[in-house]
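User: Last request for today: this protein with 1,3-dihydroxyacetonephosphate, please.
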Amino acid sequence: MRRKLAAGNWKMNGVAADLAEVKALIAAHPEPGCEVLICPPATLIAQMNWAKGAHPLALGGQDCHVKAAGAHTGDISAPMLVDAGASHVIVGHSERRADHGETNSEVRAKALAAQAAGLVAVICLGETEAERDAGATLAVIGAQLGASVPESATGADTVIAYEPVWAIGTGRTPTPAQIAEVHGFLRAELVARFGPEGAAFRLLYGGSVKPSNAAEIFALPDVDGALVGGASLKAADFGAIIAALAAA
Ligand code: 13P
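Assistant: Here's the final one, the structure of the complex with 1,3-dihydroxyacetonephosphate:
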């Protein structure tokens, strides 16, 4: 059985004052009924780790370097994230692919670095609007999956997040049929490549998930949770999404 996962990606948002949102979230959901992960800016991981106390909330980074240490000014390594209290790290988010030119092979190297440090890698994939309009969605997703996910990945150390680029931060979401098509394709590709282990990878949907559309998305087959941006910043909204996932 795949454990459902509600993941929040705070992106470049959040300062110490916003720990109040996390405190409100965990107070309202002491036993969330699904796995809950927040990936705040790296500056907040340690503080959030102290603030959560004994709550099962998991914490993650939003990126990591491929190396464990060295002369790489401004970068953060997977072992450093572990040291700060993280158990997960997002790699290959479309904003990093776009803003920093990250390639599939770099994303794969980052996933391997995460694995080596004992972190769960949340590997992101997704097509642009132009690629969807060109009918290339599954070809793009298949190529990203093949080249970004290491051969050594398992369902225990790797989560796949499908985030169509055109749905991120836009308020637009794919139709349920479009989400189901991609998630079904991802599952089939994983099983073809990894055998029975392919059924153990959790598949998250991300892109304008909010309280009003969460239940419909979580009812779809092979949707094991969500990677939530904007709506994860507020305890009330993220709490409603967590409750919808727990009830799905
Ligand atoms: P939004 O939920 O703000 O659309 O962001 C999705 C996302 O990119 C999460 O990683």
